Amino acid sequence: MGDIIEIKDVVKSYKLYDKPLDRLKEAISPTHKMYHKEFIALNGISFNVEKGDALGILGKNGSGKSTLLKMITGVLSPSSGTIQVKGKISAILELGAGFNPEYSGKENVYLNGLMMGFTREEIDNKMNDIIEFADIGEFIEQPVKIYSSGMFARLAFAVSINVDPEILIVDEALAVGDVRFQTKCIDKMKELKSRGTTILFVSHATEQVKRFCNKAVWLKDGVVQASGESSEIADLYEDFMKYNTDDSVNDESLTELDESEISQPDDFIKPNNPDILASITKVELNKDNFRTFDELEVEVEYDVYDDVIDDLLLGVAIYTPDREYIFGPNTHLEKIDIPNIFGRHRVKYIISSLPLLSGTFCIDVGLFNNEGIVCLDYKQEVSNFKITNKYFSEGLIYMQHKWEVIK
Question: pLDDT (tens digit, 9 = 90+) per residue, 158-192?
């Protein structure tokens, strides 16, 4: 569809001084003595973003992600290189940035809209949608200095996402806010993406990048370490974060549903907190001790507190005690529909022939929606099991194989 953002050989450097006076000394030094150290935040990065892409930007803190976004939005200028942007940008870089703390929420909507280039009449036309999306009630008329971080997130996101941007930039904004609001934000971002809006999405949650974005860029120490299809880049980044450098893929997993008990039992209690949409209530294994090639069954019981949760999915993952990720499919990826209406439900996850060799292993279970982007409940190391065998092989898993004697 053509490039909407073009970044070529961009460098951004800063002068770092040990103390403020050194800046003055350097400015007036007759011998041009240097009192600063140069810090290069970005070092010659180049990549393009096509119109309609959802691009995930991955990297540790200090890798240059926020600096890059600020240059794309024009808040900062590159020290060298070029950035070309062809479209109107709406960005959430820092929650509440650009808000006047003394203004009310509504007054700040006008302020932010005018800063984005909209007329007051255009903002009036969007005001009801923004207020409805933010859903902060009477606080819309109160000074934002009394807002919580969650209310800041709601209003900032509501303004940025309801002005029909050609490019939407989201920098860790989903880390703040309750589950319902995260779901609302993701749904709106999906809607924008389906209409052709280009989205740059920064998140430390690689699963969000995998499931929402089609492409990704990994920044490391100010350079592009890798770029390409989002799932592949996210896997590379996860591998680096774990080992500083797994693709354990087994096709024996099969999820099987048990919907025989949909009615609410006596201990089914809907929580008072409306932000809790679902919870995992019980996880049971068919046994605690296994041998290689035994059948593993993980039965998960969970409660749904809404009338219906769209796109509800269940994931079961196997880890070593050191949190080495072995295998973790989910019902969305394998196109399995699980019960998602009000009430208590049970789902059974089965590995018919367990390929793991001896050791202790842990089970994680999670409930998500929006293709796994929003976590509703997660139980880490909720259960564990052991595998013991008579000596017949070495390693972590048993792989089907054969020997051929050549000579």
Answer: 888 888 889 999 887 665 556 777 788 888 888 89
Helices (H), 101-220: 105-115, 120-134, 149-161, 179-194, 206-212
CA distances from 380 to 280, 364, 371, 375 (A): 11, 5, 20, 13
The amino acid present at 303, given as its one-letter code, is: D
DSSP designation for 156 = H
Signed CA dihedral, 200, 205, 209, 215: sign only:
positive
Q: What tokens were used for 334? A: 């394998």
Burial 69-102 (b: 16+ CB within 10 A, else e): bbbbbeebebeebebebeeebbbbbebbeebeee
Element (H, E) at 70: helix 65-73
**All residues at 6 or more sequence positions from 334 whose CB lies less than 8 Å from its CB, including other chains:** 253, 255
**pLDDT > 90 in the chain, percent:** 45
Walk me through the domains of the chain, giving residue ranges and CATH numbers.
3-243 (3.40.50.300), 253-387 (2.70.50.60)
Residue holding tokens 């367990």? 354
pTM of the model: 0.69
State the DSSP string of 173-194.
GGGSS-HHHHHHHHHHHHHHHH
Contacts of 91 (CB under 8 A, 6+ apart): 69, 73, 160, 168, 169, 170, 171
